[in-house]
Amino acid sequence: MGARKRNRAEAIKEAKKTKYYAVLKNCPTSPRKMRLVADLIRGTEVKYALDTLKFSPKEASKRLEKLLLSAIANWESKNEGVRMEEAGLYVKEVFVDSARVLKRLRPAPQGRAHRIRKRSNHVTVVLESKQTK
Description:
single chain; CATH 3.90.470.10; 133 residues
């Protein structure tokens, strides 16, 4: 590994130490359905985002709510003694990436078969405090 590449990798590692995030991998929901829910909370305060996810009728909102609670717990572990309300914690980024696709076959008329793609996704939630800005 070259010197520039190593320095860049170390800089990225240092930046990750100051970020508060949680990652959900291989969630068995299609990315399109998860993005609909992720768009609801992007850029909102954490308290408002939790309420939105709690009362959303979509199935993906339950998984995203649990992930957001995990990100909050990660923030609290690094900021002991600071209350969430005083810090002005908000959802900085939410992004949904495609994950593995399970390919299945479904019988079709006249001896044929249709391919069914069961999609899954990776979700990342990044939190930030308004005080750090």
